Structure formats: structure tokens, C-alpha cells
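Morning, I've got a small favour to ask if you have a moment. It would help a lot if you went through both lines with me. Thanks so much in advance, here it is.

***
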Amino acid sequence: MNKIPGITPSDEYQTLRDEILQSKKYVFERPLLIITVALASINFIEKPYIACFPPIAIGLLTFNLWFTVNRMKSIARIVAYIQLELEERRWQPWLGWETCLRYYRKWSKQDQSKQDQSPVPDTIGYYYTIFIMHVCAVLILFIFSLLEILNKFSWYTFIFFVFTVIACIVFFCFAFNWSPKKCLGMLEEERFRWRCIFEELEAKGIKKKTK
């Protein structure tokens, strides 16, 4: 393996593992924080302005679901790299995460084919729970907004109910595109990409396959 001053593969392995744990922490804590703050803020919102609460909260939940999916992609990318580069060691020499990530970004701009779906795991993992939590929270907020307009109809509550409906449509469109079932193959997709990148580096003489 290449010698990088002050850094070893074991150091990189531990650093990447720490980054995975930190990302998982964000994935779990952010939706809980948003929901907790949203519920607590109800007590501080004056009654005339309570109708604006649901669309704002749904917007935050939509953003957080997008953030969660991106964190999961990042986790899958790191895990696939760890498996192929640091654990299985199918290609040598070791180049390091940042260098390989540069090749990854360059490769990602090219036209890519789909990977074989046969090894895709049949478990959804922790994302299923987070996904359901987002969906339930949005449904509760929609019901809250509906009850608000039924109990006190006015132009103000009507406008924010429309905003709530729009926010719900946006959320569920995104949720449909990134449902737990559609995220099953994320890790295998990242393994496929890294294999293609390392094979390309092998063809250029930068790496050599060992297995």
C-alpha cells in the first residue's frame, strides 16, 4: 500500500467509521428535533396565526427527508468504499479516500449503466422507521390544518390551508420517489460505482487488481 505521511489505512478506516456514525446520528436526531420544536412552538404561537404553522412544519419535514436521503447516499458511498478498498482490498495500491472521491466525482459525470439488482438486500433498515415518522407527522399536520379551517373558516385560514395542501403534495411526491423500497439497492449501487471506478483506474495503470 502507498505510504501517506501521518495517515494509514487503519486511520482512514476509523475516520470513515466515525463519519458514518455521525451521519446516522444526524439522520435520527434531526426529525425528532424538528417534531419536538414544532410541538413546543404551538404554545407560543398566537391563536390568529396558528394556521401558518402546518405548512411551515411540513416544509421543514420535506427538507429533512431530502437531507436524510442524501445522508443515506453518503453513508452507502462510504460503506461501499470501506468494503472494497479497506476490507476486501481487491485493488492496490491504497490511494486514500479524498483521492478516490475525486475519481468518483469525475466518473459520476459520465453516462452510467444500472448495476445487477440480484444482491440487493431484502431489509429496509432504519430508514423505514424514519420514513414512517415523517409521513405520520405530515398527516397529523394536515389534519390539524383541516380542523383549523373547519372550526374557524376565514380567508386567512383558507389561504394557509391551501399552502398546507401544496406542501403535502410536494412532500408526498418526494416521499414516493424515495420510498424505503426504492432505497433498498443504494449500497449495491455504490459498490457497483466503486468497482467501475477501480476497474477504470486499473486500466490506466493507477491500480492493480489483487483478487
